[in-house]
Specification:
Pfam families: TfoX_N. By secondary structure, this protein is α+β, with helices and mostly antiparallel strands. It has 4 helices and 6 strands, in the order H-E-E-E-E-H-E-E-H-H.
C-alpha cells in the first residue's frame, strides 16, 4: 500500500510549525526532513519517526514502515504544536546530513 497525496498534505499541515520541513518521494512513500536531517517518513498512511531517545520519551507505539526495516515510532497526535515539539526534541540527536559527492551532484544535474 502506498501513501496518498491527500494524506501527505495532511501530514505536511501537521508539520506546519516545524521550520524547514521538506519531503522526498521514495517508492510510493515519503521521507521527511527538518533542517536537512531525516527525522521520519510517511508510510502506508502513517506518520512514523526515527526511534531516538527524545522520541522514545514521548511516543510508545512502534511500527514497521516496510518489510525488513527497523521499527520506527508511530505519531498519533493531531496537534501541530505537539508534533513540532517532538521534532525539535529529536533534531539534536539526529546525524547531520551527509555532504553530497561530486558524482551524485553530476548525476542529479544530468537527470540520472
Amino acid at each position: 500500500m502506498t501513501t496518498s497525496k491527500d494524506y501527505l498534505a495532511y501530514v505536511l499541515d501537521l508539520l506546519a510549525e516545524v521550520p524547514g520541513v521538506s519531503h522526498r518521494a521514495m517508492m510510493g512513500e515519503y521521507l521527511l526532513y527538518a533542517e536537512g536531517k531525516l527525522f521520519g517518513g510517511v508510510y502506508d498512511e502513517r506518520l512514523l519517526v526515527k526511534d531516538v531517545p527524545a522520541a522514545r520519551g514521548l511516543l510508545r507505539a512502534e511500527a514497521i514502515p516496510y518489510e525488513g526495516a527497523k521499527p520506527m515510532l508511530l505519531v498519533e497526535s493531531e496537534s501541530p504544536t505537539e508534533v513540532a515539539r517532538l521534532v525539535a526534541a529529536m533534531l539534536p540527536e539526529l546525524p547531520a546530513p551527509k555532504p553530497r559527492t561530486r558524482a551524485a551532484s553530476a548525476a542529479k544535474t544530468k537527470g540520472w
